[in-house]
Amino acid sequence: MSIDGKSDLQGLERAAAVAREVLETVRHEVRPGVTTGSLDAIARRIFKKHGARSAPTLAYGFPGYMLISIDDEAVHGVPGDRVIHPGDVVKLDVTPELDGYVADTAITVAVPPVTARTRALIRWTRRSLAEALEVARAGAPINAIGRRIEETLRPAGLEVVRELCGHGVGHTVHEPPQIPSAYEPWADEPLTENLVITIEPIVTEGSPRVFTDDDGWTIRTRDRSRVAHFEHTLVIREGSPLVLTA
Question: For domain 6-243, which architecture applies?
Fold first, then answer.
């Protein structure tokens, strides 16, 4: 969507506030012995407190309030009986809908003990998102975002999962345009002021090829390499973007 007035911005800010509260609360509960279903129950309580709904459930029938993916699961992990173990790499992805507005954000949480390799994967993925925000300005081509992400990750020898992109957002979970996390020549449309998008590098320490698991939702790396994922919802400006979910 493109923001058209103060009410749009306020609606997005309220949805983003719910998303931030969920992540801040749930991230502290990620520990060995906890199930992904119990983490989702925390998200459910916060959603209901604010009158929010799960945008992936509304749009696609996703069975949960959060997408919780572990280790080689890149995205769309279904919460349930799976138990978190020491050393796991847990991705928390939350997309609340509140009063017709949607915000989308994700973080990666490493469960101790954390290896140097895992710390590097998470650090460089977070850094690639921060670098991408620097070029997300009105008038810049969309593919400047993916170019900057790839340039940031190259020295670390890490790969972006090219099949999974950022996207427009605002009234539903996925809106145009696509925002590739790698350089794509076709994505040369300029970013426009007040456009609401997500940037979400999904980064692996191995092969970027992925497949959909038997549950029909979870997307995994083919070589079972671990993945980190960070995401923000932002509003494009002439200068620095307004990052709603920061």
Answer: Alpha-Beta Complex (3.90)
